Amino acid sequence: MENQEIPARSARKSRKDGIARRLWRRIREPLARSEVVKTALVQLIVAYMRLVDATSPRLKNSVRPEAVFPNFHPVILTFWHGQHLMTPMMRSDDMDIVGMFSRSADAEMNARVAEKLGLHIVRGSGGRRARTEPAKGGARALLQLKNALKAGRSVAMIADIAHGKARESGEGIILLAKLSGRPILPVALAYSRNYVLEKTWDRTTIPLPFGRSVIMCGEPVWVSPDADEAELEGKRMELTRQLNDATERAYAALGKAK
């Protein structure tokens, strides 16, 4: 009987995910045209994130951003898609961070929420063609991030490419490290209570309140200013490994704490 219940629960969850996606497709265009609705949604999302953060204490072995990040300041902070939703909550009031967000309509709400939570925003694509398709804003955004780092401000950029291969770093962030001479710090922020949208390309994880949380960091990735294509590819693979390792350690720590 128990073996029969597991597929049934999985089927019900899949139907719920499907309903949520169809509902989002139906309402996202009207939402994109309504400034009032977008403002209200941003306020609601920010309130929810603050609730989750306030009711999800960090584990004792969690990294303390205010203690670690200044060691590499200014630094390029990076996360995976689908695991990044709560990352603005890591910022303390005295941390000046510039965040890069896609120019897509779907990313606009995330950008507004992050801005409301104190990040400075630039829009663009950090994908494989960021260097060759400036119309997408990739080259311009990377230049803005480079200038921010030069001015002594840390930046945040998601490592993998939207709707590409999840949990695999793109080239844009590696190029930024080469141009700026600053390290990339892989960061994983995980929550013990969450809801995973299984059929999304990045398995988007929505944290839920009244659980526990943890932050883990990988080793910083430095890229030589004269790195050739082979070295850039090697650093891309290194960042992928470091970020996956940090994510695995974060969820493992939460599992042990239960």
Termini separation (Å)?
A: 27 Å
Give the mean pLDDT: 87
Which class of secondary structure composition applies to the elements?
alpha/beta
Helix content: 40-55%
Structure description:
- Residues 93-164 form the DUF374 domain.
- Keywords: Acyltransferase, Transferase.
- It comes from Daeguia caeni.
- GO terms for molecular function: acyltransferase activity.
- This is Lysophospholipid acyltransferase family protein.
- The chain has 258 residues and is of the alpha/beta class.
- It has one domain (52-257).
- Helix content is 46%, strand content 14%.
- It is built from seven helices and eight strands.
- Strands 3-2-4-1-5-8 form a six-stranded mixed beta sheet, sandwiched between helices. Strands 6-7 form a two-stranded antiparallel sheet.
- α4 (105-116) links the parallel β2 (97-101) and β3.
- α2 packs across α4 and α5 (138-150) runs parallel beside α6 (172-180).
- The radius of gyration is 19 Å and the shape is globular.
- The protein starts with a helix and ends with a helix.
- Residues 128-135 have low confidence and may be disordered.
List its salient traits.
7 helices, alpha/beta, 8 strands, 258 residues, two-stranded antiparallel ribbon, globular, six-stranded mixed β-sheet
SSE diagram, text form:
Elements: H1 2-33, H2 35-54, H3 65-68, E1 76-79, E2 97-101, H4 105-116, E3 120-123, H5 138-150, E4 154-158, H6 172-180, E5 184-191, E6 194-196, E7 205-207, E8 213-217, H7 229-257
Parallel strand pairs: 1-4, 1-5, 2-3, 2-4
Antiparallel strand pairs: 5-8, 6-7
